[in-house]
Each structure stands twice: as C-alpha cells, then as structure tokens.
From TrEMBL:
EC number(s) stated in the UniProt entry for this protein: 6.2.1.1
Protein's UniProt name: Acetyl-coenzyme A synthetase
Family statement drawn from the similarity comment of this UniProt entry: Belongs to the ATP-dependent AMP-binding enzyme family.
PANTHER family: ACETYL-COENZYME A SYNTHETASE, ACETYL-COENZYME A SYNTHETASE 1
Length: 653
C-alpha cells in the first residue's frame, strides 16, 4: 500500500509512577532495553531462557527453534510438558489453599476455588473424558458460559492431550455446528444454560439444533446442570450430565506429557473481516508466551487479585483467564454476568468487593461505561486497583484518559495490549513499570517480538508513515496453521510479496519514539483525494466530541475524490432525528474539520442506537461499507451480535 497519512496527534505522556516501578517485575526503561538487546544478541538463547524460566518441562528441550520448514515453525520441539500440570500441579502443595478462582455469578453469589480444589475438579473431569473414550489428539468442543467450569473443562482436555475448541456461548446453533464440523469434534461439553442480566439463556437447545442439522463426528454430549429445569437427552447422541460424568471418578489423573508442538487448542477468530479461521496453537510455545506476558505486562504477583472480563470464547479468555494467570499461580475473578446488571456499577462494585488490583477489559466496555457518567464509578472504592489493561480494538485517547482518571484515579498505568488470536499472547504492549504511556498507542513491541511497519514489498516505511504491521521473526506462541487449511495459512499470514514476514492484517504507523499506533484493519484504510486515512483517527476525533459515545467510519466510492467518508455515530442519550439530527451532523462535520482538518470531514453522518458488532464487541466495518453504499450488507454475519441494527442504519426502520 502507499503510505498512510497520520492525522491524529496525541502528545500527553504518562510516565510510570516511581511507586509502581519500584516493585514492578521490569522496573525501568534500562531493564527493558537490556531485554530487547538480549533478544537481538541471541534470539534463540533468549527464548530458551524464558521457556525454562516460565514453563516446567517433563522432558527438557534441546532445540529451540526449527525453521527448516518455514513458515511452519516449530519451537522446543523435542521437549515434553503438560499444560494443566503447569497451571495447577506445580503450585501444589505450596498453594493448595490459595484461591485460584473467585467465581461470581450473575445474581451476585460468589464461590472461591482453591488450587487444590481446581486440581481435584480438573482431574475428575479429565477422567470423565477418558471414560467417554477421549484420547490424545481428539477434538472436544466446549460451549459453556463464562463460569469456572469452562476453565475446568479446558484444563481437563489439556491434561489428557485432547484438543479443545471453545465456542463462545453467545453463538447460534449454526455457528456452533460449523465449528463442530470443521474440527470434527467427538464430544461437546455444554450447560443447560446461563444467566445474563437476570435472564435465562438456554444453551443446550442450541446444541440440540446444531446436532439435528448434522454433526456426524459427535459421539457424546456432556451437559452441566447450571440453571436447572432444562431437559437433557433431547439430542440424537449419547448424553450425560456433568454430575453423571464425574460420578465415581477419582480426584487424581496422571497428566499426559505431550510434545511441545502438540496442539493445545483450536480457536476461531472473531470474524470482523471475513469467514472465521480455525487458529491452531501449540502447547509449549503458547504457554511460554502466555506465562511470560502475564508476568511482564500485567506484572502479576502472588498478592494480586486479577480480573480479565473477556469471555473464554475469545483468545483473551484463553491466554489471560485460563492459561497465563494460572501458570503464574495467581488469584483471579471469573464473572458470569454483564457489566450493566443490576446496574452500570457492577464492574466497579466487584472491583471494590473482591479488591481487584489488576483489571483488563475492552475499549467497547470502557466506552459503554463512560457513557453512563462519572457518578457511577465514583460511588465505589477503587483504591485496590494498581494496573489497568485494554485489548481488542484501538482505544481512542478520550476513553483512555477517562479510564486513567476516573477508574484508575490517575495512579494506575494502562497497558494497551495489541495482539491477535494468531499471536497467542501480547505482542506489542507497554511494560507498565518501564515504558512511558501515550494514550492511543500500544507503544513498543515486547522484547523478542521483532515488529515493524512495512510497505507492500516488505521495506520499512519512514517514521510517521502508515503501512502494514508485520512481525519479522517467528515467536513461540505464534499460530501453527489454520486447522485443515495450510494453504490459507500461508496465503493469509505469509504472502509471497513479503520476505517471510508474518502479516498481521492491521495497518499501523511508528512515531519518532518508535511507538506503534494501530490505525485499523488494512481493509479499513480510506483514500480521500489521494490521502490515505485510517478509520481509527477519524473515529477518535468524533468520539472526542462531548456528545458522542461511539463512532465507526468507512469509505464509500466517490467519482471525484476516489472515496468519501461516511460516519455512523451513536450519541449519548437518545438518537437525534429530524432537525436535531441535521444540526448534529453540521456540528460534527465542523468538529472533525477543526480537530484534524477538512480532508477528514465525513460526507455523510448517520445516527444509530448502536453499531453492528461482533459478539466480542468489535465494530464490523465491512458491513457498514455496504450500508454506506446503499447496498444490503453482504458476507458472513454469523458472528454479528445485534442484526437488527443493520435495518436501522440502512434507514428502514
Ligand atoms: P477476524 O480475523 O476474523 O477478522 P478479529 O481480527 O477481530 O477477527 P481477534 O484475533 O480477536 O479477531 O482480534 C485481533 C484484532 O483486534 C487485531 O488484528 C486488531 O485489529 C485488533 N486489536 C486487538 N488489540 C488491539 C489494540 N490494543 N489496539 C488496536 N487494535 C487491536
Ligand atoms: Mg484478525
């Protein structure tokens, strides 16, 4: 691509507080620079050292990286380990009584699960899986709500070498069936249903429907009785309840040691840009980065109470709920409900009650909670917090500053973590005790991650110009392939025009300090009269207006300019209509012109009650591109959260 123009300027810098740095794992820029230098000096030696530091190996590896069949890289290939033993057994007996998981349900009831209890539950369930004939390498689909049992099910699979594929509980029967069939899963683990915002959501019915439509590989279903009152035995295959499955099973289960490259799981991407891809992750390399980044980026210590609000159905819920924090033996919160029930103070109430110290959530949640006003969080004691994190989308500086001031009391660093299902773990993120923060930038690549911004031929672009975000060398937790589709893996991530670099699919720029700014998906770049603009920057300007809650921007073909900008805006309060809408359009066009220049002025602005989002909360701009052109949106909508919004934005309601 040509160079992108950068129109967003953000100069506020937040340096790590000395109190934070003093006790941090990596507590200075010099310490950080030394790690970067170590990785440069001896790339393999660096990763081998970390792999020994963060993972307990049953058979130590002798070879670090095998690149003989690039881009199908292998890491630590002759080593053997068990991931569940790393997350549980190695903390025993020392941490037997330490709380591993604080589970809070929708209705506010709380359970504490110690590391010993977690061990026993995982062992029993792993034995139950074995009793159903599940063996090393078999695929198991997990379709469960965000409850501790989901983590138990994942770890039980890992214990016996079965490959799990978690399907987000909000997905429909069709999405579930596609994933079951793509993985050829032998077993499905589900629940009768779950509670969200005081309402029952039935999960088992979706499984029945999926199986009715044909899932020939499935031999059995295990259903957790979680809400009660839902009949089992209605699908066409063998069914048993979780309680029946573990009945009589011992609380010991010898972990199966697997090769480092043995797949730990398959996880489908969120589908923002197209048909979801079944991303395959390894056991050894994946765990190295999961544990290392949890330690470095979240600075997790023994006395922290950590809470990541992501669902286990997403990569964030894999790496930063199940695997990373448990590998470090910390205490974490797992929450079944929604941030707005019983009211918009739920998150902050939970932070206060559980004394959460490290909190990780998505920009979409931050913007939604910001919209409710400062009074809500101000009612709670948030003084236990010491570090905040975000993931999933670029965070616009307005939301960043609100998160920093109102939630973090101005004292907590914010780690804006850039990564993907494919990277397995954080790739670009500020290490909080070491790196100065600038709102809106995910700052610097982690030591050992050789990221760059390049043109379409792989040449680094100049400072401040936009280009393709790439990672030039392999890293342990990188995806190994797309399940069943090596060809798509190569074509998508290692295209011929780049010299063996991993292509992330995002556009980015680097500033004078080397800081990386994610500008959006490569597809989201808009070319207005020869100026290439990132959607993110126009959106940030819109959201900076006091009356705007959220905005999405797309390009529309234009005879003269090439493309023009169309903005979809959600305001705080009611959606403006008629004259009020016209007035608001004028205000916002002028505002954007003032904030970043006339070139970025949207040609059209439409208002909606919300925006089309994936179930993981990301804006689906590819659907908005159709709407902007006056065409019905096309392509895969199976992961869309709120289909009705498309009609409203098309102007049909
Ligand atoms: P699909 O690949 O199917 O379109 P997806 O890319 O939304 O789905 P994920 O792997 O969950 O699925 O998301 C990774 C993407 O999220 C990144 O490529 C990037 O676009 C965006 N992202 C994640 N974290 C950040 C961040 N901190 N800043 C900016 N963008 C981010
Ligand atoms: Mg993606």
């Amino acid at each position: 691509m040509d160079n992108l123009e950068s129109i967003l300027s953000e100069n506020r810098v937040f340096s790590p507080a000395p109190e934070f740095s003093e006790r941090a794992r990596i507590g200075s820029r010099a310490a950080f620079d030394e790690l970067v230098a170590e990785a440069e000096r001896d790339f393999e030696g660096f990763w081998a050292r970390l792999a020994r530091e963060f993972v307990t190996w049953d058979t130590p590896f002798t070879q670090t990286l095998d690149d003989s069949n690039a881009p199908f890289f292998k890491w630590f290939a002759d080593g053997k380990l068990n991931v569940s033993a790393n997350c549980i057994d190695r903390h025993l007996p020392a941490k037997a009584d330490k709380t591993a998981i604080i589970g809070e349900s929708d209705d506010g009831s709380v359970t504490h699960i110690s590391y010993q209890e977690l061990h026993d539950r995982v062992a029993k369930f792993a034995n139950a899986l074995k009793a159903q004939g599940i063996e090393k390498g078999d695929r198991v689909v997990i379709y469960l709500p965000m409850i501790p049992d989901a983590t138990v099910a994942m770890l039980a699979c890992a214990r016996i070498g079965a490959i799990h594929s978690v399907v987000f509980g909000g997905f429909s029967a069709e999405a579930l069936r596609d994933r079951i069939n793509d993985t050829e899963a032998k077993l499905v683990i589900t629940a009768d249903g779950n509670m969200r915002g005081g309402k029952k959501v039935i999960l088992k019915g979706q499984v029945d429907k999926a199986l009715e439509h044909g899932c020939p590989s499935v031999e059995a279903v295990i259903m957790l009785e979680h809400i009660g009152g839902v009949a089992t035995g209605t699908s066409s295959v063998k069914e048993l309840t979780w309680a029946e499955a573990i009945d009589g099973q011992p609380a010991e289960c010898e972990p199966v040691m697997v090769e480092a490259e043995h797949p730990l799981f398959i996880l489908y991407t969120s589908g923002s840009t197209g048909k979801p891809k079944g991303i395959v992750h390894s056991s050894g390399g994946y765990l190295v980065n999961a544990a290392m980044t949890s330690s470095w980026v979240f600075d997790l210590n023994d006395d922290d109470v950590y809470w990541c609000t992501a669902d286990v159905g997403w990569i964030t819920g894999h790496t930063y709920v199940t695997y990373g924090p448990l590998a470090l033996g910390v205490t974490q919160v797992i929450f079944e409900g929604v941030p707005t029930y019983p009211d918009g103070g739920r998150f902050w109430d939970m932070v206060e009650r559980h004394k959460v110290s490290v909190f990780y959530t998505a920009p979409t949640a931050i913007r939604a909670l910001m919209k409710l006003g400062d009074e809500v969080p101000n009612k709670y004691d948030l003084s236990s917090l010491r570090l905040l994190g975000t993931v999933g989308e670029p965070i616009n500086p307005e939301a960043w500053v609100w998160y920093h001031q109102v939630i973090g009391g101005g004292r907590c660093p914010i780690t804006d973590t850039w990564w993907q299902t494919e990277t397995g773990a954080h790739a670009i993120a500020p290490i909080p005790g070491a790196i100065d923060l600038v709102p809106g930038s995910c700052t610097l690549p982690l030591p050992g991650i050789i990221a760059d911004v390049v043109d379409d031929h792989g040449h680094s672009v100049p400072t401040e110009s936009g280009g393709n975000l790439v990672i030039k060398k392999p890293w342990p937790s990188m995806l190994r392939t797309i399940w069943g589709d090596d060809e798509r893996f190569q074509r998508t991530y290692f295209p011929d025009n780049l010299p063996g670099y991993y292509l992330a699919g995002d556009s980015a720029r680097r500033d004078q300090d080397g800081y990386i700014w994610i500008m959006g998906r490569i597809d989201d770049v808009i070319n207005v009269s020869g100026h290439r603009l990132g959607t993110m920057e126009v959106e940030s300007a819109l959201v900076a207006h006091p009356e705007v809650a959220e905005a999405a921007v797309v390009g529309r073909p234009h005879d003269v300019k090439g493309e023009s900008i169309v903005a979809f805006v959600v305001v705080k309060g009611d959606r403006p209509q008629g004259e009020a809408a016209e007035a608001m359009v004028k205000t916002l066009r002028d505002w954007v012109a003032e904030q970043i220049g006339p070139i970025a002025k949207p040609e059209e602005i439409r208002f909606g009650d919300n925006l089309p989002k994936t179930r993981s909360g990301k804006i689906m701009r590819r659907l908005l591109r159709g709407i902007a052109k006056g065409e019905p949106p096309e392509g895969d909508t199976s992961t869309l959260e709120n289909p009705a919004i498309l009609e409203q934005l098309m102007g049909n309601d």
